[in-house]
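Troubleshooting: if your tokenizer reports a length mismatch, compare your output against this known-good record of 183 residues.
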Amino acid sequence: MPNPNETLSKSVHHVAYTTRDPEATYDFYTRKLGMPLLHAEAHRQGDGYFRHFFFGMGEGEAIAFFEVHDVGEEQDFKTDISTGLGLPPWANHIAFRLDTLQELRDKTKELHERGIEQIMEIDHDWCVSIYTMDPNGIMVEFCVTTDAAAFAQTEEEALRILRQPAGEIPEEERKEGSIGKLV
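Known-good structure output:
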């Protein structure tokens, strides 16, 4: 149980991924998603080097990327964190919060206008999301909570579901995976 005297995180400072193509990453996050490039730095490490650069997500939060060269990486490393690990593309992703369905519609229109054609929409019952892939093979989601009550659970309820063997989930509690539609 959390200690009420502990200092908890206030928010996400940044989440970091790796890229092989910083220009394509810049183009996608700044020109297509509209996130400003906030900061970039380059470092030497032994005989290699890396760059670390950050895009603003709003409210002081950022998404960052590393471009690495001879700092301990395998030569054929993958940036597509899900499919590179043998998982479906949605298994590891980043989701950006929007507040209204109108903002989600506006974001869909904006993405189409900026050249992103493959956008999938899924209604998850408690939220509606749109998805696309970045140039590194990372799934990007924009999500609007549409039913906060349907998302809300006590910790006990969430733990019960978390610990329940999949084969023993009662029929009325099962959620079928959604196949979204292209928008």
